[in-house]
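Sample entry (251 residues):
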Amino acid sequence: MPGQSLQLASMKELCLQPRCSGGAGIIRAATGLRLIRPPGPANRYRNAQLDDFGRRPGRARALVPPMTLRFQARFSHPADRLIGTAGFGLWSYPWARPPQMPRAVWFFFGAPPHDMRLAMDVPGYGWKAAMVDTGKPAALRWLSVAPLIVPLLNIPAFYRWLWPYIQRATGVAEAIIDVDLTQWHDYEIRWEPNESELLVDGAVALRGPSPRGPLSLVIWIDNQYAIVRPTGRLGWGVRACAEAQWLEIAV
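Predicted structure, serialized as tokens:
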């Protein structure tokens, strides 16, 4: 409902249900819900996920600003040993029905070779606070001329001149979060109609233009990587993992 204001501090309020694959699963540990991605070769996608897509009355994507989400979270491994992608927050579930252009306000991790270079001078991997809204009219106008623009983005001077305009049009804002992922940290998403904030341990990590709703809530850990570079290089794959890894959310 437009104008909805929710303060979600308890997992019981979030309408979350599991959506897992490749032998991944979710258990209730002593301190929270643990999303576990099992070990295995690079022969299949393995994903432990909780989400509310289609779980609420009305639209499959049902959440709208203003809204505040709070999480306490930790990982099994430090950033340099994690495999795949992981995170939590709000997104558009882009390939579900009906399909949507990617929109998100969330905390996102990607391990190399994952490389999504969306924000100027921010690495395409690592643990980030991030926002994006590629469905805005300004973003779609850039998409329509992508075949002409992308080759020119391989020229460094042209890239540094033009990319800030594209980044602003697509609502991209990102910041690296330098914390020990194996320790508990407090994460907060303040999603407002115009401007949003992402906080870590009470300090603002990122402030930027809000993605439009409605969005869905998601928490996940998987073994995939994606390559999306302004220069036109695209790729996707899954990685082998020698040991189980997990993301735990306090409840």
